[in-house]
Amino acid sequence: MHTAFVSLWATYTVRASATPAAKAKFIKAAVLGSISPSPGALRDSGFAMSTTSLFLASILSLAAASPAAFQTFVVRESLSSAPQGFVKVGPAADATPINLRIALASSDVPGLEKALLDVSTPSSSNYGNHLSKAEVNAFLAPTAEAVAAVQAWLDSHGLVANKSSSAGDWLSLTVPVSKANEMLSANYQTFKHVASGKAYARTLSFSLPTEVADHVATVHPASTFNNPISLSPVLSAPKPANISPEAAASCATTITPACLQSLYKIPKTAATESSNGIAVAGFIEQFARRADLKSFLQNFRSDMDDTTTFTTQELDGGKNSQGASQAGIEANLDIQYTIGVATGVPTYFVSVGESFQDGDLEGFLDIVNFLSDEDDVPQVMTTSYGENETDMSKALAFKLCTAYAAFGARGTSVLFASGDGGVEGGQAQSCTKYQAAFPAGCPFLTAVGSVHGTSPETASTFSSGGFSNYWGAPDYQADTVAAFLKAQGTTNKGLFNASGRGYPDVSAQGENVQIVSGGETQGVDGTSCSSPIFASVIGLLNDQLISAGNSPLGFLNPWLYANPDMLNDVTTGSNPGCGAKGFTARAGWDPVTGLGTPNYTKMKAAAGL
Fold first, then answer.
1. pLDDT tens across 541-574, in order?
2. Catalytic status, residue 94
3. 209 near 73, Cβ under 8 Å?
4. What cellular component terms from Gene Ontology apply here (predicted)?
């Protein structure tokens, strides 16, 4: 090869580590002759005109190429086909906008998890010393190296992203499909969810340039296919003809605040601490109607002021419409059983609208980032929505779970309904192996299952429970899970991940729970009922702790598993599914009812009150 050609190629090779934009600038400069050797020098050195022209054409094509042409990609996520229930329609139009969320790798997730357990474990000297927003954000924030690498990547594509979390570990930007395909080496297609008819742009795989692969945890939406109808685990139950005073007080056939107070020894005395609060998460245009709450209190808490109400917080274009036809069964249930059971505890209805900033996570990430960013976080958050663990990639699920860990470290008890699919996951589905629910399988929140009856309390057949396929069993539940597996023996062997995080953690009543919605009294079933009931117990305990000058309970699980005797153990019932028997409630923890249902008196004593 001629010396001049070698010189040019060597110069280019030396600069191969430069940014794509710098490489393109160099090549153009070489072609224009500002970098020796010039095209003329190539000809003078003996290159044939045809050879030189070919070389120049190659250089010019490189100069015109996209930044991706100079990058080596690493596959981050890949699916062989779309999940069950989705069908491919065809290529997504190049101009279709996609609201991308880029999750940067946090600088110290293990440190955050260690700090969370340190302030949440009763035997720790730091128990109750919850972290400040700045301390949490220091764990969540990406490294300077990560920020620089991702910024250079975006710059090379002419893009500017916005921070969508105060820690800076989430970025958001809107790009057309053509740009998403280019920057992620992806192939976005239009996929239709058959049952709902909704269509989405998704890719079966995406990759990242080697320069940023270690600094980006995941990108969404990409290869995660969220099921649009697996959000709310509420099931409607038949309306009772009449609710007798005896039935209302006993919990034998219908559930009311009065019977829960009797069954779980929950006090009627009003809370006094205004700094204490319960946040109720609201999604998918479910609205909590104040007129229905007034009627509910008149019917079922006549000892309370029927003007007692809640504060609404809105994000992502959320609202809380008050028309009778717009009343949401889920939202009314959650509000009525926090206000109606946690007497006097300030309650906030956080309405997440349809303008999600987190793609098709339906606001799950937005709400936890929104509340975590407050200087004074709510002491409890209860959520009655969820989906199946397989509905999202492991990387995305991990990032969301880390957000819950951060929220818990601030001093918030995060509770989620475990789901209504039994061993089939968050929702009933066709399966041959047991499925896990999400977020219930995340080890940094408290999952709540469902029971019914009183003599004895019995597991609800729909109560989701089992073992995560994403997370292993955390230390705080290792012994109790091991005891269950030993007692179960070979039953259901091979149908579930025996080394996974077990859920639910606790349970509460969840069948024929009386609510008022759209002006009518009716009963509903579901773990959606159970989560706000248990959350209310925690809200009342926090009131007592704060009144005594102590910290709120925060992340509950280490405390719960350290004090199993403060709960009512449930030993009957099961949650069948997937063509098998499911799990059976038994003495101690089990993956149907967890450690059991609340006993306020014993829990108060365990909290040192």
1. 999 999 999 999 999 999 999 999 999 999 999 9
2. no
3. yes
4. extracellular region
